[in-house]
Amino acid sequence: MNDTTLSCRIGGYNIAEMCEMEFSTLREELEKIDDPRAVSIVAQLTASLDRMIDIGLPYLSMNRESSTLSGGEAQRLKLVRYMGSSLCGMIYIFDEPSTGMHPRDVHRMSRLLKNLRDKGNTVLVVEHDKDIISIADEVIDIGPLAGKNGGQILFQGSYEALLLSDTRTGKALCKETKVKEKVRKPKGFLPIRGAHLHNLKNVDVDIPLGILTVITGVAGSGKSSLIRDVFAKQYADQVVLIDQSAITATGRSTICTFMGFFDEIRKVFAKENNVSDSLFTFNGKGACPACKGRGFITTELVFMDPVTTECESCQGTRYSDEARSYTYKGKNIVEILNMSVEDACDFFSGNKKIMEKLDALMQVGLSYLSLGQPLSTFSGGERQRVKLAQNIKKKGNIYILDEPTTGLHASDIEKVMEILEFIVDKGNTVIVIEHNTDVMKLADYLIDVGPDGGTKGGQIVFTGTPKEMLENGATITAKYLRKS
Fold it and tell me: What's the rounded Cα separation, in Å, for the pair 399 and 390?
């Protein structure tokens, strides 16, 4: 901005300084404006800021770049925009709006969804969170399982009726997770001293080793800054970070290439048919000559966007006619890659190298994925579980997981916790950044960051076992842990 613009001030602040303020601070400054000419403008601005604060984003600022927002933060901002609309008779669809939200903020989200409905709109929510499901006027449960074992409407009706149903969702919602009574004792501690990154206020904390630790706190409290940005970098040689970031930038990578058992599949085909194993990769000799193993043809148009169409030669399979002519146990390479992980377990039951990788994928709840599914099509939660499957049998490491329950059904959360327990039992340390209260209850140790988000956060407000938090915790997290 130029000097003339920056010379204009309101309450002693110029526009650049106000844009750097957190929403909660900005709102306080706007309320101090008493010029009658600005009454309507201030009212509109404070109403918008109130909605963003109510939905759990008080720590953001006007200058925050959209590319730095998490998926949950971006979705909540979209919701706020629609909440300010005077439109009615619309259909709004939200996909996992509770992603990355503390239980306190989930309750705020619930109120906003109800308000949107009460304006005369239809609101459809795809969700796993019990608190969001419980406010629904109508619940539709799809299953019974995932992949080929799903796709059926199992239940439609009220939330109360769902609890009485015999569906997997109904049973999971009725089940109460008990607080872990027998917790592990730490084998030692790794210290963090004077952490002051972002909103952290010279934090001193000791991270326990050899147990399952859950890092809690409201959104924006400083959890990720403390663990991912400070702890993980300080002890980088010991840490394995398992997050939801993209695994690879190439569209040719699949679950079997990432897990490292595609080479074994190609060797099985080569041995069976007495040909080169390079014939069974679409990155080599086996590639369709028309599309070069991509499965599609891109036609460049001079004044328009390129047009992408499925390759007519290979019908999108990416393989040449010769590669598809060879079979193993009656199936060609394309049919093998179209198999789900679960079906592949039966098909390759005699091959130890392949089964070791398939078992790991089954353990993390990815039985429904097909072997040839591109990694670029995976959700954040699926990417994280694939990374977990890749590391599940290692030992002596410190594993950091950021929101591993994102996008998971309640019954799948139990499986993930069993896996984390298994990893700890093998001699590892597991640190989980999480908002799910069931995960908190099953931890050996809790570290709560707060007391709130943004400038009001960045402090350690509780350390101890889940039972100690329930009995003595005076934090926001402790309040909602008792309610769960």
Answer: 12
Cβ atoms 61, 22 nearer than 8 A: yes
**CATH 3.40.640.10 is held by the domain 189-247+378-483:** no
C-alpha closest to that of 383 among 246, 224, 270, 203:
246
Tell me: the pLDDT tens digits for 253-279?
899 999 999 999 999 999 999 999 999
Centre a 10 Å sphere on the Cβ of residue 140 and count the other Cβ atoms it contains: 13
The yes-or-no verdict on residue 198 having pLDDT over 90 is no
> In this structure, what token pair is assigned to residue 433?
């950044």
**Which residue is listed with tokens 């992408």?**
308
Q: Which CATH class is domain 255-374?
A: mainly alpha
CATH homologous superfamily of domain 3-118? P-loop containing nucleotide triphosphate hydrolases (3.40.50.300)
Residue in the structure block whose two tokens are 């070791």: 356
433-452 tens-digit pLDDT: 999 999 999 999 999 999 99
State the Cα torsion 12-16-18-22 to the nearest 10°. Answer: -140
Q: What is the DSSP letter of 284?
A: T
CA distances to 76, 133, 299, 307 from 106, rounded to whole Å, are: 11, 11, 46, 42
The SS3 call for residue 62 is coil
Query: Residues 105-143: pLDDT tens digits?
Result: 888 888 888 988 999 999 999 999 999 999 999 999 999
